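User: quick one
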Amino acid sequence: MPRQRRDLTEGFLFTDQYQLTMAQLYWKRGLHERTAQFDYFFRRYPDYGRHQAGYAVFAGLEWLLDWIDATRIRDEDLDRLRSQRCASGRRRFDEGFLGWLAGTGGFGGVSIRAVPEGRIVHRHAPIAIVEGPLAIAQILETSFLNHLNYQTLVATKASRVAESAAGGPVLEFGMRRGPDTGTNAGTRAALIGGADASSNVGVSHAVGIDPQGTHAHSMVQLFMAMGEGEIGAFRAYAETYPDECVLLVDTINTLESGIPNALTVFRELRESGHEPVGIRLDSGDLAHLAVRAARMLDDGGFPEARIVLSSELDELAMWQIRAQIIEEAPRYGVDGDAVLHRLTYGVGTRLVTSHGFPSLGGVYKLVAIDGADEWVPAMKISDTPEKMPIPGDKRVWRVYDDRGLATADVVSGGDEDLSSGDDLDLYHPHREGIMRSVDNIENIEELVVPVYRRGQRLLPDASLDEMRERRLADLDRLDPGVRRLVNPHVYHVSLTGSVKRLQRDLIEQERSGG
Amino acid sequence: MPRQRRDLTEGFLFTDQYQLTMAQLYWKRGLHERTAQFDYFFRRYPDYGRHQAGYAVFAGLEWLLDWIDATRIRDEDLDRLRSQRCASGRRRFDEGFLGWLAGTGGFGGVSIRAVPEGRIVHRHAPIAIVEGPLAIAQILETSFLNHLNYQTLVATKASRVAESAAGGPVLEFGMRRGPDTGTNAGTRAALIGGADASSNVGVSHAVGIDPQGTHAHSMVQLFMAMGEGEIGAFRAYAETYPDECVLLVDTINTLESGIPNALTVFRELRESGHEPVGIRLDSGDLAHLAVRAARMLDDGGFPEARIVLSSELDELAMWQIRAQIIEEAPRYGVDGDAVLHRLTYGVGTRLVTSHGFPSLGGVYKLVAIDGADEWVPAMKISDTPEKMPIPGDKRVWRVYDDRGLATADVVSGGDEDLSSGDDLDLYHPHREGIMRSVDNIENIEELVVPVYRRGQRLLPDASLDEMRERRLADLDRLDPGVRRLVNPHVYHVSLTGSVKRLQRDLIEQERSGG
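Assistant: Done. Structure below.
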């Protein structure tokens, strides 16, 4: 997209119109600089239909902070807002309001506490808490949600794909069917969440990971059209990339043409002093073909050659393929485990679109406004208790039990310090009368920590590897039942007694017309 | 995202790694400047599960051309490619290849024929045809697919939503759960495909459409936290926007609090000389609440007040809501048709994520390479006949019958001119022995037309309104059975006899080891 249009559509005006109309209303009422708190959280883990997530992987924070830092209100943005007219023909935005907006400079005036990127997060508990001037924090909502919802969605999917790969390398290939430039955020999230590498050249370089890719069917077609056939294409590839030779074997017929031609070229490559890397299968019954290919590669003297699978893969498809391989392998005289160990997974469209659950319903809810000398909690009353945010200024903690496993995330009041690790009474976040006492606590960790304060980053930028390590460390401390791909156990997210009482009081107050 | 990273990730390196490895191979073999043709087409209409599309709306072309025009190979891009190393430690990309790449400047050397944006398109037939130096046209593939697949997917969904709205205004609200900055392309596509306006401020201004939005629950919560209650929020809104007053009535309780408070404020507004616009319902049983709201607004003296519905809407949900309204309305003494006529639809997440079918499988396939004095057709042989592209240099036509309806899209050879409108023998694109003769032809129109030639736009940029008019004109000439939301009729896409013969010859040639 040309830079001029990008500045208009990806800068300060990358927001929903109602954020601006509300901001002006706050300005007119003199409320615009009141300090407000908004919580970011989601209510439902991704549910892909036949399989479901029991946790999510938080991603998108650094790119969000980059956007906040880079975004300034430009004269052109103000001119566009000046050009808006009401039905009556009057200007929609008052010059005084626009002048105030211009004076803020942008979003630098907010402070953010958040879970560090790459960590496992759960529903209902705040993942990020924004504090800042009401009108500015309100305008920020759209971009905030946009940056975090999509990356968290894709990182979660990637973590599941990686679990299904059981240690086999996962390559992210989704660009061509990803959502315009948003696919770059998808690639980054996939790399945080579980992909080992990506085909996306620009983003791979931006995050410091070697991009991956070999060749497509079109290369084989080209050599066929020139009369040199599939083997001509394979020879050209092996000659150009003798140490990285992965051949795509399904352009004509995998078992009758592709693999035999690949074996011929692999032998020639070995004679010239190079070892081939492997083959790629991109169509047909991948499990069956992987077994047959393994046998043919073994018999041909290439038991180390890798088998890259691609074509509509996701965590469930991969799980099924692995099961089928274990079942089918003995019939072809192959060790099924050995086949599994030589697999690499190319996962594309279904990863970057989070197939089956294409959007995370993360929300950004007003929970408190500054009062005379303390936070005044705010609440949305709903007929659906699960839709009510947890009111007030809060802190978020993760409780580990004596097995070293995370047993609950706990939301406390802003003035409660749980770090002493004493026994806790925990209350259900939305239902009344459900509580439990936890007494086998080994350790309590504060989960939501300061990351940004009025233009300053409070944590050093983490590398992608650090984010991945956070994820792996959190997964290690998560109950295996919660990690299960299908029908996972429910992880406990609870409130302390004081937060529960506040929630109850506010509901009663509002329902009685307070 | 900071500009520096954006230049790296959204510029020349916005591609898959294998495009670059193939391009270098072509360079090493002296094939890089051979002129090649690639077809862009899709094989499956969106199938959302319980409902399916029988057509698609083409979108994304102008932003793709903008990207092509704006994208230059920068020194930093070359430096990144220089930094890549093979497993052996050698540089992956030869300096000679990088020098050649730099010399091309970018993608300006390609030519593109395409269907104009906003038009209805069908599976299998080429929607766009790229002609250019092999290596450059190959590198372009990823961005080409990325730009066209997502916008065509969303424009198609928007067209269905608009059909379901049956003339009622549709507002696109999807930013917050859209895919990072890609959501901007989604907004644009929605506006081309059927949305009347959007909440997306930046994109609305970029395309010249007034952005839409009123207020969120948070504004009501704020006034509640300040002790002024829901009615305080409504009064503040009416005072600030007296001529655009739409009130969100479900923060506490729609029927017992929201609508009564809205009516009070509407009466005050009228007394001060302004007419309210309406209310918005964002939760609960929207059909039931719309009927009840209509009755309350009628009884309160506001029969003209609009009812805006939002919350997880898509074409099927809207269809069901409309049916339920017709059924429920009489029970509350309301005219169901009158309720339908006052509805406005806010469609968000399910539109920009194309709920149920989150990616269009558009592909970009090599179909021909320049020969001594004519195009040499290229083909991918597959066990699935539907996966084979139509080989060779081609033209695409739309045939209208004597009812004025489009009856088939026809793919001819590049040297065939069907515009004379004679009787045609049409062949099934993938199955043998299926043909039909068409003799009631009124008109034949060439569908894929030159749009870009080596850096020059060949069509004037169309306004969004022109694109919408193209869509509406095409829909008018489409069989209503093909437009049906569920189980649509199959639209015919056919080949001329000469293309069918070429396809058959190539398959035989390749299968016999040619």
